[in-house]
Write a structure and sequence with these properties.
7 strands, 5-stranded parallel β-sheet
């Protein structure tokens, strides 16, 4: 557990605030990944505020200037992993594969005091580290996700290294269900099972949508429970908006096996006005509904 224990009521309030902040961003900046905030707010806040055993943030709480893409001559940039605390053998680590969920990560970090609320003002502003698509310089991110499937593979490799070293810390990875179309994810699942990585826990936000529409219509991934179990994993399915269920899932016995938590979520959760818009990968508030969304944001 983290050094500071939060109540489930505090986590629920934080999840609500995450949605409110990101709806405000969508209204102010012309759009953002709003439905992902609706679906994953409880998952991310529960991870940071109760599930992960991570130490105090080592990152600067304020937004940091970012001069550009790291290179051999430019390695002096803010490291996103610092905001998840020091890497020690007994501490957990979080890898975020769904890098377009960056706004959710930043807002969750702000809710639990790892960055300042003022840092959110620099979200997606050129020249700052609070980018819309998270990378290794973005608060809360260990690495650049690159092509889908790479981050979960990096996370599994880290879990393998931890087991070889005898480290007691767990390795967590967060995915979204659209990524499960990638073959590399399933190669990783096979390898994680083969090596018995029972220190590896994957949370999947199953909001049912991807870039081109509902996942079931684009390329159905179901039945996920049976498929993942067939790869040798322990699998738990939960309501992704039930904080207690999300927390208990991480404690599921899975000796000798990696654990996957399939989180069934609603991409309009907390903002019912979105129900007329989903599925929508990137949300721009329609002009004809703008006043309605603004009023809803105010009352949140």
């Amino acid at each position: 557990m983290p050094d500071k224990k939060f109540t489930n009521e505090e986590i629920a309030r934080a999840a609500h605030n995450v949605r409110k902040h990101i709806l405000k961003i969508a209204l102010e900046r012309g759009g953002c990944y709003l439905t992902q905030a609706c679906s994953s707010a409880e998952i991310v806040t529960a991870l940071y505020m109760n599930i992960l055993n991570i130490g105090p943030s080592l990152g600067n709480p304020d937004a940091q200037p970012f001069p550009g893409v790291p290179s051999a001559t430019n390695m002096d940039y803010p490291k996103g992993s610092l905001y998840n605390g020091e890497h020690t053998p007994d501490r957990d680590r979080l890898f975020v594969s769904c890098c377009h969920y960056a706004s959710v990560i930043y807002c969750a970090l702000a809710e639990c005091g790892r960055i300042s609320q003022k840092a959110i003002d620099k979200f997606n502003v050129d020249g700052w580290n609070m980018e819309m698509i998270g990378a290794e310089h973005s608060p809360g991110f260990e690495n650049t996700a690159g092509s889908l499937g790479q981050t979960v593979s990096i996370a599994a490799g880290t879990a393998h290294a931890y087991k070889m070293k005898g480290n007691t810390g767990r390795i967590f990875c967060m995915l979204s269900d659209g990524e499960l179309e990638e073959g590399q994810d399933w190669e990783c699942f096979q390898a994680a099972s083969f090596y018995g990585l029972d220190n590896f826990i994957v949370y999947v936000d199953i909001n049912g949508q991807q870039v081109e529409g509902w996942t079931k219509d684009v390329m159905n991934t179901e039945p996920l429970t049976e498929r993942v179990k067939a790869f040798g994993w322990e699998v738990v399915t939960v309501d992704g908006h039930d904080i207690e269920a999300l927390e208990k899932a991480a404690e599921t016995p899975h000796a000798g096996k990696p654990l996957m938590v399939l989180c069934r979520t609603n991409p309009a959760q907390g903002i019912p006005l979105l129900e007329s818009i989903v599925p929508k990968h990137f949300v721009r508030i329609p002009d004809k509904q703008r006043k309605e969304f603004e009023a809803f944001c105010e009352q949140m």
